[in-house]
Design a protein that fits this description.
single chain; about 325 residues; mainly alpha; Serine Threonine Protein Phosphatase 5, Tetratricopeptide repeat; 3 domains; two-stranded antiparallel sheet; about 0% strand
């Protein structure tokens, strides 16, 4: 100890030093980076929690004071309903939502719902209004937004899709394909179906598929001449069995030259190796050969082929029933 005035300050005794032990010390830069990463994560979590808390507080006071306020967690249906309560009718509500500078997903979807409720004849009921709102949505959500507009009504969806202007929102392409699949078992041939089929090329459908759907609808409606032109083009480019068969039936209905009918039916037999319509096709071929002089043996062979196919079909059906 030593004296300083009247106070005594102890001199600290030297500490005992430990023996030198080799220790693997981690890289300081890696430790620093790791600490920074953890600090950054904690800061982000605190910031996100603070933002959520502030949003909740603002939303509470806004609703308490009757101030119009939309939060990101509000579902589109609620946004649409609250908008109508605020501004009186769907048209006025839609007009105000269209003025939102940076609309969220729920606001865009709510706009689509309000569009479906606007009275016809209003300037906002134009299809372009809906197409613009759908186009601003992420493509993955465009089909869901259309479902909100149509209430999952396939016919209404087809009507809207048939009227959209190219380029159409890419998220609606699966919707068009779905409608085609739904109408395939019982093909529709009304005005809506024709308009929808004619618009399918805008949704990426192959030209031959579009022509086939239109031709089949035209035949069902009795527009044989228009259907004949489409089927002839298809038969030249893509001679599928369904196309050739429908074209052969159409030639028979229109009383086209026997040779034209014969060539089409023979083309069908070459495409359809295992088709239940083959028996009928060979009978028709036999009749056509029988009408032409000098083709009697060809007619006999065609009828014989038809009988063999009929017997084979009967035998196969009997085996299926036994199994």
């Amino acid at each position: 100890m030593f004296w300083l005035g009247e106070r005594i300050f102890p001199i600290p005794a030297p500490k005992k030093r430990l023996a030198s032990i080799p220790v693997d010390v981690p890289d300081k830069s890696a430790l620093y980076a790791r600490v920074l990463t953890l600090d950054r994560i904690i800061d982000l979590m605190l910031h996100e929690h603070l933002v959520v808390l502030i949003t909740a507080v603002v939303s509470f006071f806004a609703r308490f004071l009757g101030i119009w306020y939309i939060t990101d967690d509000m579902p589109p249906q609620r946004v649409a309903d609250e908008s109508i309560k605020k501004w009186g009718n769907p048209a006025q509500a839609l007009e105000h939502l269209l003025q939102v500078k940076s609309p969220g997903i729920n606001v865009l979807c709510a706009s689509c719902i309000l569009w479906s409720r606007v009275e016809p004849g209003s300037p906002l009921s134009a299809l372009q209004t809906l197409q613009i709102r759908l186009g601003r949505l992420p493509w993955q959500m465009q089909a869901n937004a259309l479902a909100l507009v149509t209430g999952n009504d396939i016919s209404r969806a087809a009507s809207i899709l048939s009227q959209l202007s190219p380029p159409v929102p890419v998220g609606l392409i699966p919707v068009a394909r779905f409608i085609v699949g739904q109408w395939s078992p019982k093909p529709r041939c009304d005005d809506l179906a024709l308009a929808f089929y004619q618009s399918l090329t805008a949704y990426g459908a192959p030209q031959e598929e579009t022509q086939w759907l239109i031709a089949r609808a035209l035949v069902a409606r009795g527009f044989y001449i228009q259907a004949e032109q489409l089927l002839q083009e298809l038969a030249e480019l893509h001679p599928a069995s369904d196309v050739l068969w429908l074209l052969a039936m159409l030639y028979q209905t229109l009383n086209r030259p026997p040779q034209l009918q014969l060539d089409t039916l023979l083309g069908f037999t070459r495409c359809a190796r295992s088709d239940e319509r083959l028996c009928h096709a060979w009978k028709m071929i036999g009749d056509l050969y029988g009408e032409q002089p000098g083709d009697g043996m060809a007619a006999v062979n065609a009828f014989r082929h038809a009988e063999e196919l009929a017997s084979q079909c009967f035998f196969d059906e009997k085996i299926r029933r036994t199994i």
